[in-house]
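Holo model, zinc ion. Inputs:
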Amino acid sequence: MTNPADTPVDDPHTRRILDFVARGQARSRSELASALGVAASTVGLRVQALLDAGVLEEAGAGTSRGGRRPRVLRIAGDGIVLSADLGGRHARIGRHDLSGGLLHSETIAIDVADGPEATLERVSEVFERLLAETRVHAIGVSLPGPVDVATGAVDQPSRMPGWPGFRVGEHLAERHGVPVVVDNDANLAALGEHRRQLGHTQHSITVKAGTAIGSGIIVDGHIHRGATAAAGDITHTRIDGSGDIPCSCGNTGCLETVASGASLVRQMRERGNTDVRTTADVLTLARDADPLATTLVRTAGTHLGQALSGVVNFFNPHALFLTGSMSASEPFIAAVRSRVYEACHPLATQRLRIEAAATGADAILHGAARLALEGMEIPVATA
Ligand SMILES: [Zn+2]
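Output:
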């Protein structure tokens, strides 16, 4: 007697089956059963569900004469997952295969200040074109602010007027008839980088250090969002000796005021470099060995390392990944690393990796696609 039950890909066996097949580490039901160390029936039910859902396909069927058909499993080639990373002025949209691999991305101009309906309309136009080309299984969307994942809405009004309370996930799901998941950029960057580097276990923190600073936390392979979606918001950590520069939050001396790209631009301009306008300008000067820019970038890294050392001592992660434009600067990363190693208990840093994110600028798209894939409902008949 079997009862069908909706099982998300988050089901550990289903997730591992997809991973093994995507990486070519197992190509048949029997190889999967031995690789996972589970009964053939456990694999069989889940593989059938993935075949029915069009996520896996059988290759080579029909090529054998007389004997048993070779039933080689592979990720279905004709379905995709879409991702979108909404920033203030641009949106990046990605197409991914069903193992999460990024096939193609494009960037369009948006303005989040236009409000959710007008902004999402622009993104939906691209989705519609891609939906017309092939079967889309799910969509993952990144928003540049704290997101209530239960409603798929932005939680904080300050930088996104008109967005709070607007259910982005529901809006897009209704429009396109496809499941949509929504989360914030820092969480998705963390998920994308963690899956690439560490898979489905272990703990990591991914810090996005660009014009602003944010971070995402992965605990035992899962995004840790906290009680009110505020987990990882290190930007308002108070830094000793940072002076009393007012922060956007109303306090003074926050990490944001001394270590963000925006703060470096401000400091360069205050010291007479009035042609410096963006974080990229500061980084270019630092790369060209401009003494002030280099000092500021290193000091920013030290401040960030200081803020992170408390987190590392407390949380004891396996890895600290750095993404965002500042992470392209080796002196910045070196300064973070040396401050963390210096300020932490040796046991907390014994196995700690601190490095630039391997997914680079695509971390958020990878994370959005992963979240979408892992949230897909695959009906598995369970005994
Ligand atoms: Zn602040």
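The pocket of zinc ion is lined by residues 236, 247, 249, 251, 254, 256 (CB under 6 Å). Residues 3-76 form a domain with the Arc Repressor Mutant, subunit A fold (CATH 1.10.10.10).
Archived with the compound record.
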